[in-house]
Amino acid sequence: MAAPKRTRATASVTFRCHGHPRITGGHTKTVELTRDAEVTGRATCVLGVRSEHDDRVLGRLRGDVEVTLSCGDLTDTFTATMSAFFLGDDALVFRRGPGLRGRTIAYEATKTAAEIDRGLVAAVADGDAVLDVTIRELGTGDRAGALFVVSVPIGNDDDLSPRARQVLEAA
User: Fold this and answer.
1) 132-141 pLDDT, tens per residue?
2) What does 7-70 look like in DSSP terms, one character per residue?
3) What distance in Å separates the CA atoms of residue 4 and residue 136, rounded to the nearest whole number?
4) Which residue, 99, 94, 123, is CA-closest to 110?
5) Which of 20, 44, 45, 93 has the fewest beta carbons under 10 Å from its own?
6) Over the Cα atoms of the chain, what is R_g?
């Protein structure tokens, strides 16, 4: 008799970001949510500031995800694949293309900032707006993790590189 097929419950993470008058949502390659309180007009990928995301919780998500952005009664969604190499950052970047870049939380996103509902983008351009973000695992896609090999100095932990320290702290 074959072993019963076990399905893993899909995980979901929800957090808030805030609006900003310089949000334009015009970038054609990425969507970004940042912990920064201020952005310039050059930040055309940013759709939310003062993000309240938890890097450790987000780092547990694997495979394909659905990202839902909601502001008031306006909602838009897109899908992407979580990067096993995301260690946490002040910015969460959802990238249209491949994921092997710093700050990329997910890659192969089906939408960019320029493709998000224009009414939603206009709503988050209000500095008082609240953007609710939900990232939900779909149970598909590459669910593998990543193995990081970190060289550790003998004797003096102060000799750790900033990158090595970040990898070890994220584990």
Assistant:
1) 999 999 988 7
2) -PPPPEEEEEEE--TT-----SSEEEEES-S---TT-TTEEEBS----HHHHTT--SEEEEEEE
3) 25
4) 94
5) 44
6) 18
- Identity of the residue numbered 144: A
SS3 content of the chain, % helix, strand, coil (to 5): 15, 30, 55
Three-class DSSP category at 114? helix
User: pLDDT by residue (tens digit) across 55-101?
Assistant: 989 989 999 999 999 999 999 999 999 998 887 889 999 999 887 76
More confident residue, 147 or 115: 115
Arithmetic mean of pLDDT over the chain: 87
- Among 55, 100, 102, which residue's Cα sits nearest to residue 81? 100
**Of the candidates 104, 84, 80, which has an alpha carbon nearest to the alpha carbon of residue 92?**
104
Find the farthest-apart pair of alpha carbons in the chain and give their distance in angstroms, rounded: 62
Structure tokens belonging to residue 26: 């015009």
> Which two structure tokens, joined as six digits, stand for 148?
């990081």
